[in-house]
Amino acid sequence: MPENPFGLPDPEIIAAPVQPEAAIAFWAWKSATPYDVVKRMDEGARQRAFYVTALAERDAVQAVKDALAKALENGETLKDFQERIAAEIERQGWKGHRVETVFRNNLQTAYSAGRYAKMRQVKKARPYWQYITVGDERVRPGHAILNGRVFPADHEFWGTNYPPNGHKCRCGVRSLSARQVEREGLTVETETPGDSIWTDPKTGMEYHVARPGADVGWRNNPGMTWVESTGKAPGAGGVSGPATGLPLDKHPDLTPQSYAEQRLRPAPVNTFADLAQGITNKCGVFVRNSQGITAVSEVSKSYFMATNGHGRITISNRSFSTPKGAFKPSAQLKDAWNKLANGQALDWLEEYGVESLWHEITHNRQKWASLGRGDTAKRRIMEIVTQWTSRRTYPELLAALGGKAAHQASIKTGGLGYGGYIKSFDRVLAALRVDEAALLLQMKTLIDTAPVNTYPALLSEWLAKESGRKKSAVKQALEHIGKYDFEDKLQKL
After folding, report:
1. Exposed end of the chain (fewer CB within 10 Å): N or C?
2. Where are the domains of the chain?
């Protein structure tokens, strides 16, 4: 196989060369998955999926995956890849940059996973890893600030920042022995890098880096997921089966997947107090504050659920008439909890109860700021961001409880909370023709990093940039959702 046939950088230095077989084995482990299926997966399952955004046909996804496999096996170039999937490119209307991104991102990820597996094999002799960049003007500040920094091989940093760390990322990792660290005068860091300033050595310009490392949507380590799920890195013994620790020969009715789901399931509950304790114990990991979920109370209020944004959640025991039947939040959520405990499927209202809880948990991940008194535009847009995102991400909570979302497609478009706002917002998105997957990443970024009172400005700016429309018109349409003149503002987009 020719050296570096894809024109990708080869910045990593390890004790022995990485064989292409490792990258090929990683690629074989990936499963071709239609994009609409991927959107319903939790992050762990998504790690194993190969998908192309907006590509819905399984045969088409498999064709692209097979073409990338040939590129790995034969050392093919981007031109070879383009010719191999020429029919699909024409059918999908892809432009050159889209094809290049698919090619480079996936091959870089495959080779990176192979490198990771190899580095794990020599970890005892080379226990330190150094982040390195190409060092030119194209390196992102969030990546450049890490250049040359050394962390232990087992440090949590590598779980979310092992390259590639973004589209067309060219960063790499160098493994080091203790002698090399001492000889080169390097410092081994034990703290995960945080908010800091990076100064460009060539221009002297300073850049604020809120979170050094992987870009949004890239905070994972496919190689780690692969190695852990197969039980060991590929080597002389090949790749083993799933490392669950479960003797499947003694439990033929179980599979690694079902065993993992059983370990996640919550304990059954008899009373609301039991449910409150279960939510506190199982769901607190998702909130931002250091105390987790501090209290879960049952109330008789005219809302489904609510939160103070600082760990306290209230759930109504009233019965609400809905198109799906009577919805009693506390009762439906308790029924859902017990079904999850027993590995049973949820009905629509039970699953919606889980989504409603996830909505309040999401509020507890946001950065709170004044939204004004009463029904302000800032408050409406904050709820739109929260609800729209929650409907697409609540499967994360279900997965953490050993369950699966069966009704997400219906809940996305016909959920009960803030239903009118979401329908109007979806009409704005349709008018702007914005990619939903890209928007979801932006929404998650807003929730994780931005004060809630900045959502109108930041969301309007992003939507305007993505759609090519005027920011003022987009902002007007968003701010008038739920108002009598919304139709007029929508027509002006």
Report:
1. N
2. 20-222, 265-365, 367-493
